[in-house]
Structure formats: C-alpha cells, structure tokens
Amino acid sequence: MLGARTGGARTEVSRCIAASLQCQTSCEEGMARLKAQGLPADDDAVRLLRQCAELCELNVRALQKESRLSRRTASLCFELGSQVARAAWLEAQDPASHALARDALHLARACRPLVFAA
C-alpha cells in the first residue's frame, strides 16, 4: 500500500502528484520563456527549471507506481521546489515568474507531508 511506504495518506499523495504535474508544466513554460529571451540551454536558470520539470515527472511516476523510492523523490521535490520558488521570486519581477514561484512553492508544501511522515 502506498500510504505505508510513504507514510502519507492517499489525499497527501494525490496533492503531491497534482502539485508535481502543475510545477512540471510551469517549469517547462519557464524554460521556454528563458530560451526565447536568448538564454542558452546550459544557463544555470534553464538547467534548474529543466531539473525541476524532470524531477516532477519522476516523482509523479514513483508515486503512481507506489515505488519504494517515492519518499526520496518527494523529498527532492520539496528541496528543489523551494529553490525554484526562491529563484523565480527573486530574479524576475513579472507575472509569469511569480506564477512559477507560486507553483514551485505549492509543490514543496504539497510534498512536505510525505517527507516528514512517520
């Protein structure tokens, strides 16, 4: 059972999955915006968003498959979501960046119960 492996209830798992999907979309859109502004694919900001999008996708798969690694992927999403939220909030002052910060912070908050569950 998934709840036993992650230490979380199904509702918490569902919230983490939904937040991961939304954050993945926001990170992919953020990467597209940065590339359209001329930043290269190896720029730190682009790489951070790519890592976040890929981790979100992995987290969804791990949670859906009830993987024993799902607590670890949720933990990484908690950490990386916090980093993306901070970077998006501090580095740009436009509505798209603030939306990305909101979605990344939501990811961190949604996955946190899975990380710190007993």
UniProtKB/TrEMBL annotation:
Pfam families: Csp (PF03860). It comes from the Bacteria. This is Four-helix bundle copper-binding protein. It comes from Corallococcus soli.
